[in-house]
Amino acid sequence: MAILDVHGDVYTKFTWDYVQANPQLVKLYEKGKVSQWNATTDIDWAPEVNFGEIDPDITPEERAMTDGFMGFDLPESPFYGMDEAERSRLGWEMQSWMVSQFMHGEQGALVATARLVETVPGIDSKYYAANQVADEARHVEAYAKYLNDKLGTEHVYPISKPLESLLVDIMTESRWDITYLGMQIMVEGLALAAFGMGNALFRDPVIKQITDYVMRDEARHVAFGVLALKEVVPQLTQAELDDREEFLLEAIDLMYRRFLLEQVWERVGVDVEQGKAFAESNPLMIIFRQVLFSKIVPNINKLGLMTPKVRQRFVDLQVIQWENYEDTASEELAAEMLLG
Ligand SMILES: [Fe+2]
Ligand SMILES: [Fe+2]
Predict the structure, then answer these.
(1) Mean of pLDDT over the chain
(2) Contact 116, 224 (CB under 8 A)
């Protein structure tokens, strides 16, 4: 069994104040309670999923998107000139890689949020975090069942190095607001965007249904992080802000590097450096990585964490255009919470 041990020194916080004082968190918690679903019975597991199969129902638009994404018709692409069967296999590898990383990231969320139950001071946050823990267990369960039962265990990918490093960074931290920053803002913000795009590229109804269900929960989780941090950030000292900045810069780099797809190139037998160079320069992959930051950048800005260095990093990665982007999922949620 592959087990990763991570050491973290934490303060467990009990509170003897049981008054629910944050009405927005109370609403979010109530919403979480009635939004539970069952991965065993609510997902239709019946459709057959055949790894590698050429999709007979693919529309010309979907086809154009996949072809552009992999650069099948671009001479500079390592995949130029692949035949139908090879193209199809590569599409399935991409799907399997993405879903595998979703599964590992979901376990990260499960563990990090369990930590929050222990370390956050307020009872409202402990309640909501506990509710999120149940959500995350269900997400890991659903993705693992899909990978193992529908795609086949031989197609599952190990966790990518950058994601593993980020999870270790998050869990080594003793300060609970950094747990939120790393998990709810960075990892889950990116996941929310990745789920949306993944669903446009994914090829079977089972994974699409799972991801639709998961996305609904994730929108609440990101909102939870924003609500919690909105109260904390204004109280931080300059030295504490500098620490958060340093953490963020590292997290941003790790998130960006996740999507250079080394593991896929290795598995399909493409020279890794050539594959990475392609991932860095292919226009659709650039757009894909930019969209991945569409929830993170505006939330960092809203929280008052857009320091000159963080901003410069977003400029360098060409994602600063999201700075004032209205994060629709969270906005809708906020409106719902505020209007009842
Ligand atoms: Fe999740
Ligand atoms: Fe989540």
Answers:
(1) 90
(2) no
- Look at residues 261, 212, 197 and name the one whose alpha carbon lies nearest to residue 66: 197
Q: Ligand 1: distance of its center to the CA of 217 in Å?
A: 7
d(CA 244, ligand 1 centre) in Å: 23
- Domain residue limits, the chain: 60-339
pTM for this prediction: 0.92
Dist. CA 71–CA 77, nearest whole Å? 5
Measured distance CA(141)–CA(95) in Å, rounded = 18
- State in Å: Cα 79 to ligand 1 middle: 33
Q: How confident is the model at residue 57 (pLDDT cuts 50, 70, 90)?
A: confident
Please tell me the distance between residue 139's alpha carbon and the centre of ligand 1 in angstroms. 5
**Dist. CA 95 → ligand 2 center (Å):** 20
Is the predicted pLDDT of residue 335 greater than 50, yes or no? no
Q: Ligand 1 center to residue 239 CA distance, Å?
A: 32
- Give the ligand with the smallest distance to the CA of 132: 2
Running DSSP on this structure, what letter comes out for residue 270?
A: -
Q: At residue 23, does pLDDT exceed 90?
A: yes
pLDDT of 13 strictly over 60:
yes
| Confidence grade of residue 11 (pLDDT, cut at 50, 70, 90) | very high
User: To which CATH superfamily is domain 60-339 assigned?
Assistant: Ferritin, core subunit, four-helix bundle (1.20.1260.10)
User: How far apart, in whole angstroms, are the C-alpha atoms of residue 259 and residue 239?
Assistant: 32
Output the pLDDT for position 327.
Answer: 61
